[in-house]
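Entry 14. Ran structure prediction on the chain below.
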Amino acid sequence: MKSLANEFFINMADGARRHQAANADQYELVVNGIRNESDLAQQVALVEQMMATGVDAIVIAPADSKGLLPVARRAAAQGIVVVNIDNRFDREILAGMDISIPFVGPDNRAGARKVGDVLAAELKAGDQVAIIGGNPGAFNAQQRQAGFEDAMRAADIEIVSVQAADWEQARAANVAAAILGENPELKALLCANDSMALGAVAAVRQSGRAGEVLIVGFDNISAANSLVQSGEMLATANQYGDQLAVFGIEYALEILASGQAPADRDTPVDVVKAGAGQ
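Output, structure tokens:
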């Protein structure tokens, strides 16, 4: 997984452990994560470690959509079933490799479009918004930005700034503070994950513009859900993080049992608004 400092991935790990405990006769589970969501070198080292121990399957949420592909290819060539979750590997590069790595996860662009549409309904044409994105090298970051842009374009809302905060709360707080300072007419911040949305909330509070600048996120971690219910955030997207690893594990087990040629599988993503609970 990516950063175990992020509640989303903690929930993912917990969901995987619960699944393994209920299916202990089917497989053994090793859970690994990196220090932060951009530590590509550590994630490569973890995959190599798993290869060296002779695992049968690796389910991976890659920190980078391109940078993890060489080691994933080596793992697949070794006969290990590799299943890609959360952040999709680069399709063009993958197509040029003589391997098959399925993606099991949500349509991030469609999910972000849903969240963006909820925000657009609260704004009017010509209003100004900004996007705080994740790691620019991550496909899910690119797709969520595209989904936000789709929604704003459809509503004729002006995007005055797009900046990356690499999925991190503290960095997002600094980015949001700068955007707020430069754009006094800003009406909303669209954040590509909830950790960054929490940073944006802190920046909006600090600026004295709470209630004036709307904030949306993506992931439905508990702190963000609480802010949605209290009204400090307008909405987030639930991609059922506690089940994402489970979806990948179950597919890996199917492939191991049947030898079937793997194909991508879509998983659900839904908008969470006030009153919608967890």
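The chain is about 45% helix and 15% strand. Will compare against last week's run tomorrow.
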